[in-house]
Specification:
Number of strands: 0
CATH class: Mainly Alpha
CATH topology: Serine Threonine Protein Phosphatase 5, Tetratricopeptide repeat
Radius of gyration: 18 Å
CATH architecture: Alpha Horseshoe
Helix content: 55-70%
Number of helices: 10
Shape: elongated
Length: 169
């Protein structure tokens, strides 16, 4: 437990340090499975004052972290905030891609569908949301979004291909 406190304090002390220095501290923190680690990581994810590279690193780490179902919902809430807050484009893309691992959590397909359908969003972000939806498999809410995308000028052929693969027309 003392090691966790030390690692958390080390990251906090590097508040104004370059991203590489912070990542070094984060790697140590991510290795712990202590209950304080996940809330700390989620705070880093939603901290708009934090460097985008650091936030993206934590989002990627959360993609592969072993999580309980209630923890998965908390991760989705944090990543959903990032996707909706309009930070750096690359960070939003990373958030959309990471949500592919959480499509079993309530509301994720709705979040991804909203982004994929919004033609005012950057194309790479919309495509990332689309590919995350594709990985969700043929759930009714995914099928609904893909049917809407099947008449979208950008995603029409891709959406129809996925619907055909899923045996929906």
């Amino acid at each position: 437990m003392e090691h966790v406190e030390q690692a958390l304090a080390e990251f906090t002390a590097r508040r104004h340090s370059p991203a590489a220095s912070k990542m070094d501290a984060l790697l140590r923190i991510e290795g712990f499975s202590e209950p304080r680690v996940l809330p700390f990581l989620l705070q880093v994810v939603v901290d708009i004052q934090e460097l985008p590279e650091v936030r993206a690193h934590v989002i990627k780490a959360l993609r592969i972290r072993q999580l309980a179902s209630d923890e998965r919902a908390a991760v989705v809430a944090a990543i959903g905030r990032v996707l909706g807050d309009g930070p750096s484009p690359g960070l939003r893309v990373q958030a959309a891609l990471t949500l592919a691992e959480f499509t079993d959590v309530e509301g994720v397909t709705r979040i991804l569908g909203t982004v994929a359908l919004d033609d005012t969003e950057p194309l790479d972000l919309r495509y990332s949301a689309f590919t995350s939806l594709e990985r969700a498999m043929p759930r009714s809410e995914c099928v609904d979004v893909l049917r809407q995308l099947s008449v979208d000028d950008t995603f029409d052929r891709l959406a129809r291909r996925v619907l055909s693969t899923w045996n929906f027309q």
